[in-house]
Amino acid sequence: MGIASRALTLRASRKTASIRTYYPVGTIKCDGVTIYRSQVSRDAACIFDFDPVIVSWKCLPFSLPYGDQAHVPDFETLDTDGCLELVDAPDRDVDVGLLEASARRMGMSYRQLRRDEIYGGQRLRNAKDLLRYANYEVSLGDRLRLLSGLEENGTLTVAESLTAFSETKPVAGLAVMILNGFIEVDLDRSLIGPETLVRRIRA
User: Fold this and answer.
1) Which residue ranges in the chain fall short of pLDDT 50?
2) Rounded to an integer, what distance in angstroms lies between the CA atom of residue 131 and that of residue 145?
């Protein structure tokens, strides 16, 4: 398939995806416009935002030659080693081997996520809960109070941490500090609750 045809496929894919909205709206590592092909692809992007290896990701980046057709992967991810990878959500029926070979010819890699990478454990549910606060801000005073408390105690529970917020809505403030990399909680073991431990992240 020629470059012009591949460009048409890309435009059509983006136009179709752009008319749909999938929850949650907020992101923290997306580079560019957020347009998702399906809820499953949106769920995959939630996982990317909390993957420490992934620096940034893009939606529907460009089209790959795919036999006599073209294929637009759901994402392009950039990792901490500077490597780019094309990624599809697991709800697509594609020839993985053919796409891997096509990506290699462009100097990139391709993979299709497994369903358990997205839906195994509690990470997705916790990620969605946190990302709903992606557009909030936390005040300097509240940030300093919580960081000082963690400096003094090492760890605090979520319930204890919420008492540090007096200028910002407590749950929103805590979520923003997790999203911005000031503090961390275990996203995999269970749903975030009052007894979940909060730790400071040191640069």
Assistant:
1) none
2) 23
Domain containing residue 137: CATH number: 1.10.10
Q: Which two tokens stand for residue 6?
A: 């591949």
Q: What is the pLDDT of residues 124-164, one digit of tens each?
A: 999 999 999 999 999 999 999 999 999 999 999 999 999 99
The CA distance from 49 to 129, in Å, is: 13
Q: Are residues 88 and 19 in the same domain?
A: yes
Q: Are 170 and 162 in contact (CB under 8 A)?
A: yes
Looking at 96, 119, 142, the residue that finishes a domain is 119
Distances (CA, A) of 138 to 4, 158, 181, 190: 47, 16, 13, 25
CB 29 within 8 A of CB 49: yes
Asked whether residue 74 falls in the same domain as residue 13, the answer is yes
Q: Which of 65, 126, 61, 123 has its CA nearest to residue 88?
A: 61
Q: Is 136 helix (H, G, I), strand (E, B) or coil?
A: coil
Range of the domain at 175: 133-200
Confirm if 42 and 120 have CB atoms less than 8 A apart: no
pLDDT of 20 reads 72
What's the CA gap between 72 and 58, in Å, rounded? Answer: 12
Instruction: Say how many C-beta atoms besides its own lie within 10 A of residue 159's C-beta.
Output: 13
Q: What is the per-residue pLDDT for 19?
A: 55
Instruction: Say how far apart CA 190 and CA 105 lie, in whole Å.
Output: 42
